[in-house]
Design brief:
The protein is α+β, with helices and mostly antiparallel strands and 211 residues long. The protein has 7 helices and 10 strands. The strands form 3 sheets. Strands 3-4-5-6-7-10 form a 6-stranded antiparallel β-sheet. Helix 2 (22-36) packs parallel to helix 6, helix 3 packs across helix 4 (67-75) and helix 6 (165-177) packs across helix 7 (192-202). The chain starts with a helix and ends with a strand.
Length: 211
Amino acid sequence: MINSVSGYHHRLRTSQRPMLSHLETAVDRIFGHLRACGSLIADRRRPGLSPAEVEARIRALGLRPPKDLVQLYAYCDGTTTTAGKDLLGKISFFPGFYWMNLEKAITVYHSVSTHSLWHRSWLPIFANGGGDFYIVICESASPFFGEVPLVMYDETDHIAEFKNVSAMFETIERCFAQKAFFSADGYLRADHAKMSAIAHSVQPDFTEHDI
């Protein structure tokens, strides 16, 4: 009887745990893939912020964050990097780009948003250290609200590659799982043709386009 009651309470506690969203599951799996690749960034994961804090800090910039961007930083506040000490190639979250924590993303936003070619609604979340960013469009009136383009700082043409943050992270996770992203010579590498095919399978109703 005691064992039966104990088992009941265990099942009750388990059932009351909130189920992870697809985005949160993708984040966990990506860190698992990074650890399997021997990446040092796998151990630089930052705990999430409160949703209210994420929302407030982004809105303080005059931006409106899409729900999955808030959910992302509430689950994991990017990764910890040490300016001037970490080699960019060693801290990549996926080939070529590292994941900025929210404070860093906001700092970068303040730095780049004064540029004549930078739209005020673009919040950078991934950077390559050379002026290229994956950004999230945080303007609810925009037809591209929530999309994730690759923005190259001194270029005028930019391509929206993902329909939202969730699709981006699912694509990254599948790319690791299907070996489109892999480790070679201590660095993350990419099979770009395979990555493109995976991205299309994740978001078959989305077509890359200029912004």
